[in-house]
Amino acid sequence: MQLSEQEIVRREKLTKLREMGINPYPAALYPVDTTSKSIKNDFEEGKKVVISGRLMSRRIQGKASFAELQDSEGRIQVYFNRDEICPDDDKTLYNDVYKKLLDIGDIIGVEGELFKTQVGEKTVMVKNFSLLSKALRPLPLPKVNEEGKVYDAFNDPELRYRQRYVDLVVNPQVKDTFIKRTKITNSIREFYNERGYLEVETPILQPIPGGAAARPFLTHHNALNIPLYLRIANELYLKRLIVGGFDGVYEFSKDFRNEGMDRTHNPEFTVMELYVAYKDYNWMMDTTEKLLEKVAVDATGSSKVKVGNHEIEFKAPYPRVPILEAIKIHTGYDVAGMGEDELREVAKKLDIEVDETMGVGKLIDEIFGEKCEHHYIQPTFITDYPKEMSPLTKEHRNNPALTERFELMVNGKELANAYSELNDPIDQRERFEEQLKLSEKGDDEAMFIDQDFLRALEYGMPPTSGIGIGIDRLVMLMTNNSSIQEVLFFPQMRPEKKKVELTEEEKAILDILKPQGEMSLSELKEKAGLSGKKWDKSTKNLSKHGLLKVEKTEDSLLAKYTG
């Protein structure tokens, strides 16, 4: 492992600390009794406190130093005075340990007393401190040059998502998203628990990947010598529990789909599914309106939520638009009753890419997704889907070609999917067999036939309504984030690229260029002081690695740091 100069220095300090008898990673409990937020909110002059956190900045002035300590709730100023910390003749703890062997990023514990500085800042006067964890890598903290320009901010999305632990330290506002995520899930739990519904857990490893039309992940169980799938949905197991006599069950489910990745899709995601006996999709629409209004208020303090350039109003009621009517409104085509060939022709006229494996359901889904979905910014229930699109849904009571299903659209995307659940075992078997035909045509997202689920239905399932709500997308809406990666602590990432190894000459060029961000190429060359051959080779390699870009201006060539 090749270490940077700073990493080498920190390891040398680590050795010196150990030689002094200081354990840089002590095992004993540290008796923290307050936080930065509590100190500020309940400040009391002279109060003794014990606090711990990460050293984020310091200004050493001889025998005194102001520093900032960051804990889980924010930052607090701490004041180190040599004579307070070392009242006797031995000043080692301040002069050597604090001044020379501690680094920004180290985690320390502080015992002290509260006071206010001359400018009124609430501060901890350090009486004693302990090193709790030595940081061997420097934090990528932003820097400010003489002109006030910020550079080296840790804002590259790939680095932030890959090293979320660093992101949370140096960009503390990121924590707010995940705190709000917990508020959202707690709000949902509270809503359902008040109504007497039971939170349950169902299998993640399943012999049949049922409950949705999606491509599954496949694995193998060695002891049983059978293939197993990571679940794509928990629907069929929850409905088994309704068969078993529970009137209402819900689950926050980790689901997995072996499909594409983009700003709104991650292969591992969270869905909340609820099933309630003796209800239908009309009841579920009413209930969902009440739920989302409560969640918005609990998470943001208002039923109106800012999302991009829009203000989304989650207060009930929401419009209800049949899907075929939506397609007619936004395309001019009445696709009701059309077969595959007719729908394929409509899709082609609308410049929508389709293929021969798509049945009626997939074709209608593509047309709606491409031409209609983005129009629904405010919460809107899209209802009454054709039977071919909804193999687990009860036939519509007024039109046998349709089903009692809705999808909730918000900000141009699906947020929830719900049915009056199909509980006729014979009809369900026929629907599964239609899915099998699609699979034989090449549709790798068509549903499997789950024989055990059919057997469960044959014992009798009461009329039931169910819904699935995408938690990640709900959090995106409530936190005004346009990327799913921003609301997942550890989103799936492509394999990490090999670290670029730079020569000393290349490092020297970057050390000159990075603080400025950009400068004339001639000035950079002059300051680097390299021979023509080394200069040409170094700049060529930096450009190749995407760290240096040269642009032509009216007067000269401009070098830009692009790392």
From TrEMBL:
In which broad location class does this protein mainly occur, judging by the first location in its UniProt entry? cytoplasm
For the keyword Metal-binding, the answer is: yes
Q: Name the residues that bind Mg(2+) 1.
A: 407, 414
Q: What reaction(s) does this enzyme catalyze?
A: tRNA(Lys) + L-lysine + ATP = L-lysyl-tRNA(Lys) + AMP + diphosphate
Give an example GO cellular component term for this record.
cytosol
Tell me which UniProt keywords the record has, alphabetically.
Aminoacyl-tRNA synthetase, ATP-binding, Cytoplasm, Ligase, Magnesium, Metal-binding, Nucleotide-binding, Protein biosynthesis
GO MF term set: ATP binding; lysine-tRNA ligase activity; magnesium ion binding; tRNA binding
What residues bind Mg(2+) 2, as annotated?
414
The cofactor binding remark recorded in the entry reads: Binds 3 Mg(2+) ions per subunit.
Q: Which residues form the Aminoacyl-transfer RNA synthetases class-II family profile domain?
A: 181-495
* Compartment(s): Cytoplasm
The highest taxon in the source lineage is Bacteria
Report the InterPro entries cross-referenced here. Aa-tRNA-synt_II, aa-tRNA-synth_II, aa-tRNA-synth_II/BPL/LPL, Lys-tRNA-ligase_II, Lys-tRNA-ligase_II_N, Lys-tRNA-synth_II_C, NA-bd_OB-fold, NA-bd_OB_tRNA
Q: What is its EC number?
A: 6.1.1.6
Q: Which cofactors does this gene product need?
A: Mg(2+)
- Could you tell me which PANTHER family the record lists for this protein? LYSINE--TRNA LIGASE, CHLOROPLASTIC_MITOCHONDRIAL, LYSYL-TRNA SYNTHETASE
Q: What family name appears in the similarity comment?
A: Belongs to the class-II aminoacyl-tRNA synthetase family.
Looking up NCBIfam families in the UniProt record yields: lysS_bact (TIGR00499), PRK00484.1 (NF001756)
| Subunit | Homodimer.
Question: What is the protein name stated in its UniProt record?
Answer: Lysine--tRNA ligase
What is the originating organism of this protein?
Flagellimonas alvinocaridis
